[in-house]
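Checklist before submission:
- one chain only
- standard amino acids only
- sequence pasted in full

Submission:
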Amino acid sequence: MQCRFNPAVGGTGTNLQCQPYECTYLGSIYVTGTNQVSQQFGPVSGAGGGAPCLCLYNAYNHVLLTSRSADTSSTYTFAGGTGGFLWQRMDASAPGGSKNFVNVVDGLGQMQVVSQVTQSMQNTGKTATIGIDVNPATTPAAPTPIVQTNSASQSSYNAALGATPVLGLWTAQAVEGAKGSTGTASFGGSGLQLLSVQVTD
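Returned file contents:
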């Protein structure tokens, strides 16, 4: 094990080798490109969500923490797939777009994760579906479980996910899908898009 000693702000520091029982792990942090650490509970809101981060991990005396990302965007449509479901990050303009997520740091890979997404959906020709993915690919795969609707009336739906612990920095991503031969699926609006992530930290 190594401890890092930084003699001055902005200094390069020195790695010191620790003998057994001489070093104690206290936790981990994730630092952004602007050298900031965020611990945002929210709801953090904005068009496409607020992208909050639980970026400070405490190794001891864990408590329940919840972070929320609220999407203030107006109603939008997604053409999806003509055969099976095509998935995208929620409220993204393309499958590779990055919106409606919460970042979390787990220093020991022991956090129990519970997340929920609330979304307004309606079928305007295609089945509309939502779910949550952890560390999704550029084009998300089908999450498990999913919630879907074939209703032509706009209604609010909830999808939940209980995930196994993930070591390091990880992302809980709200995703949506659509399928059908014609038309689109309609999502969002009226401030009904909310992603929440609850962890023990």
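Reviewer check: The two ends are 23 Å apart (CA to CA).
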